[in-house]
User: Fold these one by one.
Assistant:
Number 1:
Amino acid sequence: MTVTDTRLAPNTFLSGNFAPVDDELDVADLPVRGAIPAELNGRLLRIGPNPVSPPDPATYHWFTGNGMVHGVRIRDGRADWYRNRFVRDDNVTEVKGWPHTGGPRHGMGPGVANTNVIGHAGRTFAIVEAGGLPVELTYDLDTVQMTDFDGTLPGSFTAHPKRDPITGELHAVVYYWEWDYVQYVVVGTDGRVRRTVDIPVPGKPMLHDCAITESQVVVLDLPVTFNLEAAMSGKALPYLWDADYGARVGLLPRDATSGAETRWCEVDLCFVYHPLNAYDLPDGRVVCDVVRHPKMFATNQNGPYEGLPSLVRWTIDPASGRVHEETLDERGQEFPRHDERLIGRKHRYGYCAAFGDGIEHGPALKHDLERGTTEEHQYGKGRVTLEPVFVPRHDSAAEDDGWVMSYVYDATTNTSDVVILDAQDFTGDPVAEISLPQRVPFGFHGNWVPDAG
Ligand SMILES: [Fe+2]
């Protein structure tokens, strides 16, 4: 049969392990194989799209589904609990008949927050880009309220704030389709926005993530831009490839008072969701390692890739106005992470999830960028890792001395586990594997949030 009506075509992002789960579970004392390190006390949180009611498969875009957060709490060598909860945007509460979520609103949508979940200022937030506000969650992942950080956030936030490891403040670059600028936002350790700087841009770029160094903010201004025609025609995600827009990377001094201080550097056409990390060189150049996509939303508006994304090193030279690009690892990969005590400082190691067609088993990758080598952890037949998160053994442990934790989906059993690897025995057997009571759909991001004290 030839499918001529696209409404009959299956939507990849509603099937297999992309499909949503319906139930909110609370399950205590999870089965563990191996031994959970006693040093780990906290929650491994994760979030992704999980439509609360069946969307139209012809128009559903993966990036726009209602958020669902999953968490495993680990304490004293035990897996205390697994929980999952819808993030209660206005669509979720309406469909479920649940009480309206309090707090402010921004933008026109229902307030979906589906892209990252973080701990900050002793609180937990589900966060998203492009206009939706953060949603504050309890420790147990129930929705508290939508928040503009006590009235201090002018508009949009981001799914990817960067925490300065010295000050504990969050640094972000945010965008909104109505703005003719993007905005640098600093959130203090009290959970309130401390300062903002508007950075003029010639269009309305999708700006998913940023990087910081000790002195600079790295601003991505790349050729995926808001398309009014696509918005008017009802596209769920009205951002398209626009080669004419060009591609550039900006360096804004972190202490700048005006966006006009941004020094822009040309880069070859590409799209980047995620930098791995960036750092200053003594001569004023900046190194920024990124996962580089050759294109995005050019021929396939659904994404999530057009040509395999690879790991590259940008050396950004504000004196010449150019970016030098060097391939670090050309195999398909995404969700780059590193030891976040080194945000903005020189890193040696990076961890990614292998990504793309032809990758049957979905290994995690560990890059040693000093030696130029990559190790693969194969989780076994049919098992696919989601974003790997590095957790240091203790506060003063060396880089890479710790664990790589991830949610791993097993297609042969349709179940998920949390798998804990020893980062320094990356290809060896896992230290521990925690069996979860339901599968965790493919989604976006998560973090280890250590318990206070
Ligand atoms: Fe992301």
Note: Residues 115, 159-160, 208-209, 273-274, 444-445 surround fe (ii) ion (CB under 6 Å).
Number 2:
Amino acid sequence: MQRLGKNLGAYFGATIDIRAVLRAIESAAAAHHWASEIFHSERDFHWLALHRPGRPGGKRIHLSAGIHGDEPAGPLAALRLLQENRWPDDPEVFLLPCLNPLGFVLNQRGNAQGIDLNRDYRNPRTAEARRHIAWLERQPQFDLYLCLHEDWEAQGFYLYEQNPDGQPSLADVMVAAVQPVCPLDLSATIEGRPAQGGIIRPNISAQERPDWPEALYHITHKSRQGYTLEAPSDFPLETRVNALVAAVQAALAHK
Ligand SMILES: [Zn+2]
């Protein structure tokens, strides 16, 4: 599969009508009986937290997308997962399909003020991060978080693993599930970090970082294992959605 070669210095690929995508997400969630909570509103947008109960003893999973407004595959993957409705019975899923709708209106990484929400989870100055954190504080602990992202510079799909307690890793099963549907980034260095087979296991001391991404909030406060999934946005949008959906389904199905 060839790269499109469109992204010169930023993302210049396909964009989405975020209002239409969010309407479709709401109707798919309602059709499949997800509970829906609005945890923030601004202009005509509602920030949704969707909930699907699992079975007793099942894992509790926080799945979030759309924190960067120039990464359309995340919300589209959330929509596809809802529409296909092939969720395993066991896990309880909290799905936050779009954390930055105002960024999508502008097709930009940051919010309407240009602030990168994914650097605002330690001492939040944005309403979006503050309201998400306030919602998180009302939730139980999660067994797993998955953050859906895209990278316009990537050679292929890759992921970051946070697993400080050395629990059984889901990285290999996710990468194996993505490999048939989307190229992997097999570079030895990705985003300046050592990588192997599309997997980055960063050594991050949260306390030393002033600007937490969402994942560092999760690993510090809510969850002891999680993954940031990065689809390569120089490939066709459909391919990137396929990659994120395949990775999420593999993680959810894994016992
Ligand atoms: Zn991102």
Note: The chain has seven helices and ten strands.
Number 3:
Amino acid sequence: MRSWAVMLLVFSLVVPSLSYGADEAPLVGYSSRNSQTERKWEAKFRGMPDPANLREYMGRLSARPHHVGSPYDKDNAEWILAHFKEWGLDAHIERFDVLFPTPKVRVVEMVAPTKFSAKLEEPALAIDPTSNQKSEQLPTYNAYSIDGDVTAPLVFVNYGLPEDYEKLDRLGISVKGAIVIAKYYQSWRGVKPKVAAEHGAIGCLIYSEPKDDGYSVDNVFPQGPMRPADGVQRGSVMDFASANPGDPLTPGWGAIEGAKRLPIKEAKSITKIPVMPISYGDAQPLLAALAGPMAPEEWRGSLPIPYHVGPGPAKVHLKVEFNWDIKPVYDVIAKIPGSVAPDEWIVRGNHHDAWVNGAEDPISAQVALLEEARSLGQLVKQGWKPRRTIIYCAWDGEEPMLLGSTEWAEQHAAELQQHAAVYINTDGNDRGLLNMGGSHSLEQFINGVARDIEDPETKMTVWKREQLSRIAKAKTAEERQELRQRADLRIEALGSGTDFTAYLDHLGIATLDLGFEGEDEQGIYHSIYDDFYWYTHFSDTNFVFGRALAQTVGTSVMRLADAEVLPFDFVDFADTVDMYKKELQKLLAAKQEEVRERNQELEEGVFAATFDPRRPTVAPAKEEMPPHLNFAPLENAVELLTRSAKHYQQALAKKQMSMGDAAGGLGPEKLAAVNRELMTTERRLTNEDGLPRRSWYKHLLYAPGVYSGYGVKTVPGVREGIEQKRWAEADAEIVRVAKALEDEAGVIEAAARELE
Ligand SMILES: [Zn+2]
């Protein structure tokens, strides 16, 4: 089936005016007759999204700051609602009331050895017309930092990750009682204060290092796209990965009017120590005033100073106080009812709120969502009747931490678990390659869609461009061979940091996350300079990638909504799980080897031999050897899964040749039964008890890492068990994951038999 798809693609590129003939292979999950009809509607759809509209929507939605609780946030929601309605969708606004702190007091100053007060202010630029909307802009801050007033010596901690603190240990430096200063990136920003607090720090500064998104990359704004000296990255520091995203006062249920709310002091996701983000303009004097050992080479940035670690003599006073207010968020929800299977839902979302004007984040992809909705509305007027129900969602409150999407998911959890087949997310769009992430049961599906979308720059398909780009970047011959021979490009497993989190990780709904990226550098993230002027000078300036995104996601929505049998595939899925299993075995072996080697070096006296009395270091402690774990249950489950996946693929292929014919076709009841089973396949990968110590996260294969945040941990119970040396827990998690995979194999097998 996959190679057919490739041939179809070549055919359609060479002779674009020809429509798909009756003798061509049908789309996966479609009878040949319906496949032809679908192809025609999809082709019509892809001609509709218009860059001029995308530009106009962006101009409107990013015209003023529109963070949670601001007048323009509500205004935008109402504008989106009016347009959904105008386009013929059945739309309404759902409001939730959530805890959203805004700053009251912000002080960052050096009190010794010299005095310096941080500006904490991004200047308006004459050339950038929205940068001067000062009265409506949120000041620079990190949302869900706890209130605090601390004065202490400063310590530079690189990116503030656990391994950075191991390095500090080796340097003999403790952060106990100190304020740390960490660089942005390499993890969810909320991980930095979390790890700092776990090591005894009492305050945390996070700064934008010019080596990462400033002048080391390209010219700074407004001459170029990068962060200027006073530019600051706002952002949430909520500890969502070890607790839950969404409103901290209503974990697990919808924050509707009258809902039960926890007292603030019981909210688990608020930081333990005060946090402030600062620019590199403000960071430089602080870092320059540090003494102590030189920072390890890979920690150093590109400020014109020697990077020392401290502690001190720089002593910093950090004071923050917030208005802990309940604010409304407005989700705009629009529906196109299904004609045959209205109880099977395809849900598509992108947020509309921003930290400030947010042209890139999130409006660049919100405008694609709107163009999809307008175009689908047109198709309905022309007679297109989607088989399943389509739900378009413009989320509010994503930036503080997925508030609108999480509250909606929690409020409608029971219906969603019963009806939702797939959730598709986007969040921002730039020039470049199609980034495909999601549930691996949709890997084959999204590869198929990508083969039908034209890249605006090269005119090859976005799939082909991605494949060739991966070949260019591949590091080994094996990687290149797989890229050339495997039918589908591997898609990324999803971590978090955007609105799919509640749908995939909490409810177990098969998910895709899509967007174009990679050709434009940017240093305006979460600053006042992420605006229409920046986007139309430095990103997808003619909105052709915006159109490509609307074409990609809209085609996905249609193809999922119209298929007789939901186009899930489990062969790629089983292949991926098998890969994870091997990774885990390698991870354990690597840990064992690491400990064995280190212990041997300690015995040999390697650390004593390399000791430099002028640059003293501390030898690591001797460690106990990691035990062997029993992977047998996982081995057996993966084998079962692989067998059932192949069986299902064969059964579907056989059925597809005859589907729609009177003799071989499946009756409506059979179809409904198969689809019901398919809809539960992602749910089977969840467990009601959730992951160890974070029960909101139910998915056993995908979760944001407790110490990475955005970054995914696949098979998180086992992987984090090994990483955090919880050996008994890792062993127990293997059994739990294996059990879920066996259930999964069972339901795939049942669906296959249903087809036969
Ligand atoms: Zn966003």
Note: The longest helix spans residues 571-604.
